[in-house]
């Protein structure tokens, strides 16, 4: 039996996060409701510490550990960095919301950090087994977080839907993985990738691939596997919707990259067609259904579906430029999504959710500054220059034209223009409609500063998109 | 070899039969008991595959713990069976059609390639499945193994977070106070004069 001691050093961020979650879990037991802020601060420290550890041990080299079940590469590290960043903002925005609704408990933070760990595992997965375990760790934490507001019937209902459909999707994914395992007799993605080139079971591989794409599409929320997205976004407490809408999308992108690009790139021709169908349907359904919504959380859910369609357009190109464009898109989307849900939290107060479109009426009279921040976010989501969302869309479209799929780029642009309607409607409501609810925004300074920074970042990075794009390109060796 | 095949087909038939009964049985308690039967038969199949540790674990964990819990839940929840079965016959033809066509397509796609799948090599009597599992679990698969442990912690935290309710009106014992009680708090020594006759 030859066994080498694994290279623990490269997994140090994961180990740090796991240790800190256990610490937070125990320390929270001794906290009263008044001193619960300690839990919050410890959770934020965990994220900062993990970011520092990831950054200091960063290298462009691809390293493996734990018998090739764990991989550490530049793409993974950058994605992890943005996961920490978006969850840092999520925790910051969520605190006042949780405090006002008697939900400010340690469980939100413990489950949130477990979800972060799950995402890190997914990002660093090099074997089918670790992808699945990371996914389940993330998903189980999210199911419980959706149901945390126990007295709310909507929250319980959406948690139930999320759980059952999520379990179904995991089953699909596992079935596909078992087929791949049967055909290649390995769980290691590198071995699968070698075997896939001239497999003696090509049909079984494609058969497994179909189920894997279904599972991945469910996790991304792509049409026709999107049924859970609007219900879960609307039914969850906004603090949890904020969580689901941000970093898990980055992790889902990482899962696509690991499974389909690292593992099955030789089968690109097969999954490209599936992705074309999924992305066109997502763009159509997401953008058109969003117009009919009056609840802003539900509207943003349909907008997520459309954005995921765009993300898949980047991945399906099958080139390094396309992957880097899709990665850029995911990061930008997470930033915008955090900001948009943060705005809902800013307008809400105890007993008032501010999740209707009409609740944004006359925001300009109430607070011109935050109306401007929301305007930046909405323009960016719609893809109006010079905001960051524009560059994200452009880089994906450029790659589509580059691989001679101009028709697909045209379809994407047409649906984006249709989608611009509902983003612009919010701006119209904020600036041109009469204020109905005259209560002032009375949230703490940290929320205001963070939200302003979030909005400004989208404007500033939109004016200077170079560094972020270069970072994404560099991770793919471009 | 023929004897082993008879055993294999017997238990396979049992698994299939029990599986069908699980979804068709009218009484949910019967359905749960048929699931127990399905678990038993599949553990026998695993024994034939020389995976004795998994076979024993299946019986111990699923039959011994999970299914008992399941039966409790079924008995404690008052499920309205009539409402659950409503529309069963109406949806049956469509469901059966979809299921049969999917099975047919899957067999057509996967069947030919899996038909000449190499038969796994038979291990000798000195082969110890439990030891092999233990060795691989703590060396090659240590990372997934630890992750599985973390997932169990998540499940515990989630289950407690969702079900633990602290109600102020409940009268309950406090073992800590009970243990640390002192004699003076409970016993009152009363000096009494001796009764006179």
How do the strands and helices of this protein lay out in sequence?
The complex is a heterodimer of chains A (478) and B (197).
Chain A: H1 12-29, H2 37-56, E1 63-65, E2 70-72, H3 74-100, H4 106-123, H5 128-146, H6 153-184, H7 189-197, H8 202-220, H9 228-235, H10 238-245, H11 247-263, H12 268-291, H13 296-316, H14 320-347, H15 363-366, H16 368-382, H17 388-402, H18 406-432, H19 445-463, H20 466-475
Antiparallel strand pairs in A: 1-2
Chain B: H1 2-24, H2 28-48, H3 52-76, H4 81-85, H5 88-115, H6 129-138, H7 142-163, H8 175-179, H9 183-186
Strand elements of chain B, count = 0
Q: Indicate the structural class of chain B.
A: mainly alpha
Write down the domain tally of chain A.
1
Radius of gyration of chain B: 28 Å
Helix-strand pattern of chain B, N to C? HHHHHHHHH
Radius of gyration of chain A: 21 Å
Largest sheet of chain A: 2 strands, antiparallel
Count of helical regions of chain B: 9
The residue fraction in helices of chain B comes out at over 70%
Q: How many strand elements of chain A?
A: 2
Strand fraction of chain B = under 5%
Overall pLDDT level of chain B: 86
Tell me which oligomeric state these chains represent: heterodimer
Greatest interface and its participating residue counts: A-B, 42 and 25 residues
Overall shape of chain A: it is globular
């Amino acid at each position: 039996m030859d066994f080498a001691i694994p290279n623990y050093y490269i997994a140090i961020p994961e180990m740090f996060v796991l240790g800190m979650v256990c610490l937070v879990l125990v320390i929270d037991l001794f906290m009263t409701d008044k001193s619960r802020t300690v839990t919050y601060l410890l959770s934020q420290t965990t994220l900062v510490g993990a970011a520092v550890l990831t950054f200091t041990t960063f290298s462009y080299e691809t390293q493996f550990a734990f018998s090739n079940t764990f991989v550490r590469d530049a793409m993974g590290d950058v994605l992890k960095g943005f996961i920490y960043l978006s969850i840092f903002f999520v925790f910051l925005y969520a605190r006042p919301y949780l405090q006002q609704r008697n939900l400010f408990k340690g469980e939100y933070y413990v489950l949130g950090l477990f979800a972060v760990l799950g995402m890190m595992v997914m990002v660093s997965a090099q074997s089918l087994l670790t992808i699945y375990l990371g996914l389940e760790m993330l998903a189980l934490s999210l199911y419980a977080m959706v149901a945390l507001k126990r007295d709310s019937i909507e929250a319980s209902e959406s948690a139930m839907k999320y759980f059952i459909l999520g379990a179904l999707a995991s089953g699909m994914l596992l079935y596909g993985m078992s087929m791949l395992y049967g055909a290649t007799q390995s769980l290691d993605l590198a071995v699968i990738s070698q075997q896939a080139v001239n497999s003696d079971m090509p049909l079984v591989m494609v058969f497994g691939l179909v189920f894997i794409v279904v599972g991945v599409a469910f996790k991304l929320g792509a049409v026709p596997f999107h049924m859970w997205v609007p219900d879960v976004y609307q039914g969850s407490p906004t603090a949890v919707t904020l969580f689901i809408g941000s970093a898990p999308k980055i992790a889902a992108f990482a899962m696509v990259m690991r499974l389909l690009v690292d593992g099955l790139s030789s089968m690109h021709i097969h999954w490209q067609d599936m992705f074309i169908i999924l992305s066109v349907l997502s763009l159509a359904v997401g953008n058109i259904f969003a117009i009919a919504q009056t609840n802003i959380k539900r509207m943003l859910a349909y907008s997520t579906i459309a954005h995921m369609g765009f993300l898949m357009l980047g991945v399906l190109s099958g080139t390094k430029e396309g992957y880097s464009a899709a990665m850029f898109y995911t990061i930008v989307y997470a930033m915008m999504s955090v900001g948009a849900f943060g705005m809902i939290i800013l307008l809400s107060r105890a007993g008032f959710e501010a999740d209707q479109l009409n609740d944004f009426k006359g925001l300009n009279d109430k607070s011109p500054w935050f109306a401007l921040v929301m305007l930046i976010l909405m323009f960016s989501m719609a893809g109006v220059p010079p905001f960051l969302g524009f560059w994200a869309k452009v880089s994906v479209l450029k790659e589509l034209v580059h691989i001679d799929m101009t028709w697909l780029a045209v379809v994407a642009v047409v649906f984006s223009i249709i989608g611009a309607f509902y983003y612009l409607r919010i701006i119209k409501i904020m600036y041109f409609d009469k204020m109905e609810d005259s209560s002032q925004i009375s949230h703490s300074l940290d929320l205001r500063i963070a939200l302003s920074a979030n909005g400004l970042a989208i404007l500033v990075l939109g004016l200077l998109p170079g560094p972020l794009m270069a970072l994404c390109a560099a991770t793919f060796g471009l | 070899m023929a004897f082993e095949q008879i055993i294999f087909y017997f238990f396979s038939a049992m698994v299939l039969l029990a599986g069908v009964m699980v979804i068709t049985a009218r009484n949910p308690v019967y359905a749960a008991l048929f699931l127990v039967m399905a678990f038993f038969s599949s553990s026998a199949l695993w024994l034939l595959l020389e995976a004795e540790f998994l076979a024993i674990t299946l019986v111990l964990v699923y039959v011994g713990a999970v299914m008992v819990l399941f039966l409790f839940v079924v008995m404690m929840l008052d499920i309205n069976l009539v409402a659950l079965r409503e529309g069963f016959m109406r949806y049956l033809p469509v469901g059966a059609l979809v299921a049969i066509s999917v099975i047919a397509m899957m067999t057509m796609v996967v069947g030919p390639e899996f038909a000449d799948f190499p038969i796994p090599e038979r291990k000798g009597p000195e082969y110890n499945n439990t030891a092999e599992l233990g060795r691989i679990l703590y060396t090659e698969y240590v990372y997934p193994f630890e992750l599985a442990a973390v997932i169990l912690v998540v499940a515990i935290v989630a289950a407690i977070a969702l079900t633990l309710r602290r109600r102020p009106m409940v009268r309950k014992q406090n073992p800590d106070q009970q243990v640390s009680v002192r004699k003076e708090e409970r016993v009152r020594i009363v000096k009494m004069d001796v009764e006179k006759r």
